[in-house]
């Protein structure tokens, strides 16, 4: 199906202009999370797919009712949901009015001297992420509709894997791939609510499906999450969202892991976190210290894993903006126009941090944290590299398979791998040295053989697969004749290699660039030497013919 065919007939206005958020009927189903991979409604007794519902954060959302395979919601539940939404909608700092940075709830800025120094790593990470592309000037900015950004279902319940919601708008758009390349044509879809986290707080965006349509990117636009898909979806249509849980849970483990490491590093050593990055393979915390000793890293790793074993709960709370406790929360403060409650992630007894990300409910969900060591950071900073949760298992699996391959190659056990490689390296060095000496000897013998002939030809051509620039120069030095033109090459006979043209100064100056051109390479030279790299060694025959012709013309009797 092409994208134009997929566009619903009634969607032209929404696709072309800026969408209008629809008010849905009171009896319509609203956003409802389906916990776990099965369709068990929230509030159902624990099942195999839902082993521990009690550890989730209380969402305050109504209990959905299952009806004829579809889940519906009654009017009183609906009211509760709307009031819960209204409260939630006020719980984020102001949406951007033209500024993507301000739009991010993890980018609170400190108003004059009221807040402690900037410490929230989320903020720095958000600043480093690409900005949301500017909207066309004719389109009204949704961020202006409300001073407070929305809280999405993924933030109320980070464990929800499926969710029924409704399409609010769908408009044609293009997506620029993260790694560069041609833009992808598709549609920006806004839903009533979402369990797909738009990027923020250093945490990348989620992937998933709307129905069976893959979501390629989720970004935050003011109070909305914008889902990029390649098929048009009809505004008003009920859809089932499915989350790519593996990707999300990985992000939850790394993000909560970062909060824990940050808190303990500050508590143990006073090293404040200035930014962090959740990478594809590993994550990095930038600490405000010029260095960290191996003992400190070891003690930090021991302590964070101890906290994981203690199964400390992680709780998301909403604090009133004037709550004095906010002063004690690790953050960069609130933006000037902030209204409504503030979202705070607590690791009980360890840390309180203003954050928009999706988090685990208990440190035991992190399984394990491995600190891989430090790398040099910016001036007076240290980058601490870590893995959390399943990444540790994956890393061990990779290391183990590498170790098995090395055991087979080196024919000894893992404990002897390093010594075996060291022995191999020194033996290779010795062989290279011997090889070089032999090549030199051969070069000298070749030159002497040439000179020993009673009549020396005016052209000397030699190719040798093994050899280098020095090998060719030794021959040229040894022959050293002003009368003979030498064309020497080393390397693969059909592909790339090196060449040297030596002989009478004028002839070499004249012929050098043409030889280089014929060999598909580049070269330079002076005083009767012209040498360079060749990419088409197969052209050596042509070069030889050219040189032969040159000599014939110079001395027809030759
Ligand atoms: Zn965070």
From TrEMBL:
Keywords carried by this UniProt record: Cytoplasm, Metal-binding, Protein biosynthesis, Zinc
GO MF entry, a single one: Ser-tRNA(Ala) deacylase activity
Cellular component GO terms held in the UniProt record: cytoplasm
Alanyl-transfer RNA synthetases family profile domain: residues covered: 189-398
Recorded superkingdom: Eukaryota
Pfam families in UniProt: tRNA_SAD
Cofactor(s), names only, from the UniProt record: Zn(2+)
Gene Ontology biological process terms, A to Z: alanyl-tRNA aminoacylation
Gene3D superfamilies per record: 2.40.30.130, Threonyl-trna Synthetase, Chain A, domain 2 (3.30.980.10)
Location of the region described as Disordered in the Swiss-Prot/TrEMBL record: 1-68, 91-119
InterPro entries: Ala-tRNA-synth_IIc_core, Alanyl-tRNA_Editing_Enzymes, Thr/Ala-tRNA-synth_IIc_edit, Transl_B-barrel_sf, tRNA_SAD
PANTHER family referenced in this protein's UniProt entry, alphabetically: ALANYL-TRNA EDITING PROTEIN, ALANYL-TRNA EDITING PROTEIN AARSD1
Record family assignment: Belongs to the class-II aminoacyl-tRNA synthetase family. Alax-L subfamily.
Listed name of the protein: Alanyl-tRNA synthetase domain containing 1
UniProt source species: Aquila chrysaetos chrysaetos
């Amino acid at each position: 199906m092409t994208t134009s065919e997929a566009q619903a007939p009634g969607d032209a206005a929404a696709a072309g202009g800026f969408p209008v958020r629809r008010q849905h009927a009171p009896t319509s189903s609203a956003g409802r999370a389906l916990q776990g991979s099965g369709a068990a409604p929230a509030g159902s007794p624990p099942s195999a797919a839902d082993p521990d519902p009690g550890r989730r954060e209380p969402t305050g959302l109504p209990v959905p009712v299952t009806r004829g395979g579809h889940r519906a919601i009654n009017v009183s539940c609906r009211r509760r949901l709307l009031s819960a939404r209204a409260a939630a909608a006020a719980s984020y700092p102001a949406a951007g009015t033209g500024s993507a940075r301000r739009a991010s709830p993890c980018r609170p800025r400190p108003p004059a001297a009221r807040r402690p120094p900037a410490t929230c790593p989320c903020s720095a990470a958000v600043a480093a992420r690409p900005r949301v592309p500017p909207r066309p000037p004719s389109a009204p900015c949704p961020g202006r509709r409300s001073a407070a950004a929305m809280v999405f279902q993924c933030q109320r319940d980070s464990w929800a894997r499926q969710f029924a919601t409704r399409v609010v708008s769908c408009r044609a758009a293009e997506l620029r791939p993260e790694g560069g390349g041609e833009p992808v044509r598709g549609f920006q879809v806004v839903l009533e609510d979402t369990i797909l986290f738009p990027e923020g707080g250093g945490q990348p965006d989620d992937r998933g499906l709307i129905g069976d349509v893959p979501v390629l990117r989720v970004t935050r636009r003011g109070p909305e999450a914008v889902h990029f898909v390649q098929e048009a979806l009809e505004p008003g249509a009920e859809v089932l969202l499915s989350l790519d849980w593996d990707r999300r849970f990985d992000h939850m483990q790394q993000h909560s892991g970062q909060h824990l490491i940050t808190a303990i590093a500050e508590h143990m050593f006073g090293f404040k976190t200035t930014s962090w990055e959740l990478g594809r393979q590993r994550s990095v915390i930038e600490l405000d210290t010029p260095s960290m000793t191996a003992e400190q890293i070891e003690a930090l790793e021991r302590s964070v894993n101890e906290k994981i074993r203690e199964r400390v709960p992680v709780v998301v709370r909403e604090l009133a903006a004037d709550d004095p406790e906010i002063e004690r929360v690790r953050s960069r403060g609130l933006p000037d126009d902030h209204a409504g409650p503030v979202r705070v992630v607590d690791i009980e007894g360890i840390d309180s941090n203003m954050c928009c990300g999706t988090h685990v409910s208990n440190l035991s969900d992190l399984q394990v944290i491995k600190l891989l060591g430090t790398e040099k950071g910016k001036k007076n900073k240290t980058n601490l590299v870590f893995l959390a949760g399943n990444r540790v298992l994956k890393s061990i699996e990779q290391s183990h398979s590498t170790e098995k391959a090395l055991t087979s190659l080196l024919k000894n056990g893992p404990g002897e791998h390093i010594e075996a490689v060291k022995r191999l390296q020194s033996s290779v060095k010795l062989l290279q040295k011997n090889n070089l000496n032999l090549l030199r000897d051969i070069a000298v013998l070749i030159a002497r053989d040439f000179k020993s002939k009673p009549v020396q030809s005016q052209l000397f051509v030699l190719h040798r697969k093994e050899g280098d620039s020095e090998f060719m120069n030794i021959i040229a030095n040894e022959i050293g004749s002003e009368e003979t033109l030498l064309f020497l090459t080393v390397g693969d006979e059909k592909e790339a290699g090196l060449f040297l043209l030596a002989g009478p100064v004028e002839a070499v100056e004249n012929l050098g660039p043409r030889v280089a051109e014929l060999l598909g390479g580049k070269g330079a030279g002076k005083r009767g030497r012209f040498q360079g790299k060749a990419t088409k060694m197969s052209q050596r025959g042509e070069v030889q013919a050219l040189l032969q012709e040159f000599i014939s013309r110079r001395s027809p009797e030759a």
